[in-house]
Amino acid sequence: MSGGGRWRSLWPVAVLLALLAVPRLDLQIPVIFDGPLNSPGTLQLLAVGFALGIAALSYNLLFGFTGVLSFGHALFFGTGVYLPTIAMRQWEWALGPAIAFALLGSLVLASAVGVLAFRTHGVYFAMVTLAFAQAGAVIVGKNVGELTGGEEGLSLPFRRLPKWMVGVVNTDNLYWLTLATLIAVYLVALRLVTSPTGRVWLGIRENERRVEMLGLRPFPFKLLAFVLSGLLATVAGIVYLFLVGGATPRAVSAEFTVTLLLMVIIGGSGSLWGPVAGALLYHYLNVRLTVWAGSDVVADLPALLRQPLRDPLFIFGIIFVLLVLFFPRGLAGAFVGRRLRPFGRSLGGAVPATPIGRSEELDR
Amino acid sequence: MRQSGAESLLRLTDLHTFIGESHILQGVSLDVAPGRVTVLLGRNGAGKTTTLRSVLGLTPAAGGTITFDGGDITRERPHRIVRRGVGYVPEDRDVFGGLTVDENLRLAQRPGTTADGMALVHRLFPDLERRAGQRAGSLSGGQQQMVAIARALVNPNRLLVIDEPSKGLAPVVVSQVTEALAAIKGTTTILLVEQNLAMAQALGDDAVIIDNGRTVYTGPMADVTADEQLQARYLGAGHSG
Amino acid sequence: MSTIILLTLTGLALAAMYFLLAAGLSLIFGLMDVLNFAHGAFFTWGAYAAWWTIAQISGEFRASTPAFLLALVVATIVGAVLAAAVEVGLLRPLYQRPIYQVLITLGIGLALSQLTAVIWRPDARTFPQPRWLADTSTVLGARVPNNRFLLILAALAVLAGMLLFLRKTRYGLIVRAGAENREMVQALGIDVDRAFTLVFALGGALAGLGGAFGAAYFGSIDPQFGSVNLIFAFIVVVIGGLGSVTGSALAAVVIGLAQQFGNYYTTWAGDFVVVLLLAVVLLVRPNGLLGRLR
After folding, report:
1. Which residues pair with B25 in a beta bridge?
2. Surface-to-core class of residue A143, CB atoms within 10 Å of its CB (0-12 exposed, 13-18 middle, 19+ buried)
3. Contact across the interface for C187 and B78, Cβ inside 8 Å
4. What is the pLDDT of residues A280-308, one digit of tens each?
5. Which of A126, C13, C140, C194 is deepest in the core (most CB within 10 A)?
6. Inter-chain CB proximity C231 and A308 less than 8 Å
7. Which residues in A lie closer than 8 A to residue C115 (C-beta atoms)?
8. Per the domain annotation, does B147 fall within a domain?
9. How many domains does chain C have?
10. Of B58, B97, B99, which has the smallest distance from its Cβ to C187's Cβ?
11. Which domains does chain A have, with CATH numbers?
């Protein structure tokens, strides 16, 4: 890969690095944000968006770059949210071991689910991963073993966290932590997709049978993609946990996976940065729509308009449908057109016409 | 090299077809004269099957025109083309394995047609009548080929499009299939793709040879049979008389 | 003993509800290769349509028998109409792109389900049913709500009807053939698109009916009603084998019973056993109990 290609794929990192300055910027951006840029509220909004961005990026390694549609991703995000909380609250572990426990647990879980689920293909795989995630959701929701706090969830025991991570005054620290994690994950993902393994992933996405004909067994590559994307989702879950200060069942729900998919579709599945942008936009809209729905402007609207506006999920459903119908390549597709530069070049110019795989390997 | 003057039931003019990114047909032209058997010849990968699939609308042509009985069918959907009176016997037979022989035939029979077709089929392939209740998937390759041909014969079609009926069949079965097709020859128009030169020779009136997606020869089948140089050039070594 | 009877009958009723949802999913997948995430929304809409009908006729808190029966009809029609509209309006442009089809059904499912929250409130509502349906009958010492029996009977009737449809009608023939080889069906002069719409509408009708019965079974409805049950219906479809109606029926019984008996011991065991069963079936028979090898 030429230097130009590398720089082209590194520009999002530059943007993210620039965002590190935000907690020191006392800027008012009316309409867009309520408080100044460096107010805890705005920083929290952005930071949660970054955490979701990590999750969406990890999901897209599997969906966009390997052509595997999983509905079980919330399971691994949820692992990052729940295992540290359980370890610290119920077993009184320290922060470090609790994080290690979550990562190890995610590794084991993703390997087990992957080995089982990859016995199937395409749509079957989607359903099977959905079922496993549902098992996770049941364990969490029904408070199995009195560990998870059930529907109520479980709050993080703040006394087990270092001082700099606790409290509204330290929001800027958490912001930096999350953004730094996002940058690190982005670089890891970039390294992965441009590696020989990443090229095999793209090959699997384009045509799994052709990969087999080249004498490679797709299974270990798909499993690796599944496990790595699961691990990164757990990382996302951990930073998310620090930001929101507790674990709730939503983190392991099927709806959360659907949300991730929505972020990927909004941003575009053909690039690494697309899903991050999609996640930020999604989270921003989700928060702001709820605020707007409660505003006077909306309250004065006729019921026919007011009711739908009060339901962000309904609006996202509609957006989802419209995007799939009219902008299947998302934001990234709209901005970058058909270019999938770094990968297209390393594949000898075999740039795919569609951001996700062709029909033949995605059904059956 | 086009036949001129002769009326044609099916006419392909400068057909271009893509499969994915690959430009498979790069100018196929041919005429099928009514009442005659036109054999489409060419090497493996020359584009014979794609030509037939374009005629049926299964792999729609990107350029050129296809007319059937004077009407333009280039952009028509497959079921409409078929309902104009085209019977199709695909390359790999594609019988519905989970359905019985009888169900395969009844599915093919278009509502409103008379029972004549079924009678014809049973006369040509008495074996199928005996096996009416058997699952088509459990039949031998030759029997499946008969089901596939029978599906095209149950309707009063004006054109039969048949893709390599001899493929993968034992010689004795090939001659059975040849006999069956010979029996209907003259009563209907046939566009036949066939690698087996003996069969092509037994059935064909006219021949069209395509190479690399282009028509390279049009003429009487008998001339192809006689011209070994032509055979060597376009049909490769795999062909034997 | 009476506990076992009660659990068995309740489990079979649950199975019946899953079957109504899964049969359509399985047919749709078998013919069209579409994993239909909007199916849960058809189910939800069936439930709400039934509730609305009853509320119009006999009020929100009690249901007369005619109101309930009419509600079943309305639920079925609403399911069928919604499904047909979705297929013709939104899925048809995407036939060449299966993944986008899955995605769009996901979006449709989300929007349609939430639309019930937009039109009626997002919180749960009690589903009124005629007294005789909510009453219990005593079977070998077990007191079983009558709606369980009605649900089981309805599912059996639907199973019989579907098998007849598939085996004895021309459209059934087209559906079975189309599940094997869509293109060849077209090449026999048959308009496959019409068969798609029909199968979608049929699946939607069953989901709508299932939603109405499910509402009676659980006694209350909410906008997430369908998506919760959809996950179990997916499991039923995978265990039964995609495209096999009989397989779905068989798997529904296994899942319904396992879930009921499991949940009797602890609140979560049932759901957990279901996923465990799925894992076992996948290990032993990746194509499901009655699935064709693909």
Report:
1. B17
2. middle
3. yes
4. 999 998 888 877 777 777 777 777 777 77
5. C13
6. no
7. 314
8. no
9. 1
10. B58
11. 3-23+35-362 (1.10.3470)
